[in-house]
Amino acid sequence: MPAFHRYLGIDYSGAKTPVASVRGVRVYQADRAASAGEPQEIAPPPGPGKHWTRRGLAEWLARELRDGPPALVGIDHGFSFPLAYFQKYGLAHDWPAFLDDFQRHWPTDEGTCWVRDVRDGTRGNGAARCGDRTWRRLTELRARSAKSVFRFDVNGEVACATHAGLPWLRFVRRELGARVHFWPFDGWQPPVGCSVIAEAYPRVWMRDFPEADRNLDQHAAYSVAAALRAADARGTLARLFAPNLTPAEQRAADIEGWILGIS
């Protein structure tokens, strides 16, 4: 019996402001039943923009996970930073405290704040919480092709999306509390009957599915939703939730986080 009723793949973007319609933010949903067909794109609520805003997405996700059946959600941006960052700034190895500290310095969920505004020093205090572009988390090293969460301004970067998305993880967590399990920070084995939000890296799965008429952002979100449903149907989700880590590596990943599907 599958553990979840639905599977959401979210391709993320750090472009523009949190209230701007962003073409690169895409959401696909797959239902548990194989008869439900392929994952379908979820359009944003009616509004002035054609695409999702980051604020609108976070608010929608909080509502969906509060009221709906258990879902497994894969989001394409980093959920935490390398241990070197925690060491440099003397931060406790506590993920919720990290989110609070990050949002105070990088308020990219506020008003019309762009990531570049914090980088330029016109908003927040990013200079007091910046990282080295050579720092990589263990999961990024294991994935090989995954880029550092601090490597801005390169093709295929995840840095901008990560710096824009972290405050919204904090928002969803504060909205839902124990209704949602943030993997692996809340534990490596999610409780039964609880929705789960995890970091995803679409490149792991995109070649497993034909692109059809989807653009790159759409196919990334589609592939995450399709892969998560397939793993649950096959009974292999437990393996995804238990990557091959030594005790020391797992202690590091407890705070750095882990990409679902990287073994």
Number of domains: 1
Please, how many helices?
A: 9
For the secondary structure, the number of strands is 6
Main beta sheet strand tally, sense and closure: 6 strands, mixed
Strand content: 5-15%
- In round numbers, the mean pLDDT is 96
Provide an overview of this structure.
A six-stranded mixed β-sheet has the order 3-2-1-4-6-5. The chain is built from nine helices and six strands; from the N terminus they run βββαβαααααββααα. The chain has one domain (6-256). With 263 residues, the protein is α/β, with parallel strands linked by helices. The radius of gyration is 17 Å and the shape is globular. A hairpin with an 8-residue loop joins strand 2 and strand 3 (40-41). Helix 1 runs parallel beside helix 6 (159-176) and helix 3 (95-105) crosses helix 6 (159-176). The model has no long low-confidence stretch (mean pLDDT 96).
Question: What order do the helices and strands come in, and which of them pair?
Answer:
Blueprint: E1 6-11, E2 26-31, E3 40-41, H1 54-67, E4 71-75, H2 83-88, H3 95-105, H4 115-120, H5 138-143, H6 159-176, E5 180-182, E6 195-199, H7 216-234, H8 237-240, H9 247-256
Parallel strand pairs: 1-4, 4-6, 5-6
Antiparallel strand pairs: 1-2, 2-3
Helix pairs in contact: 1-6, 3-6
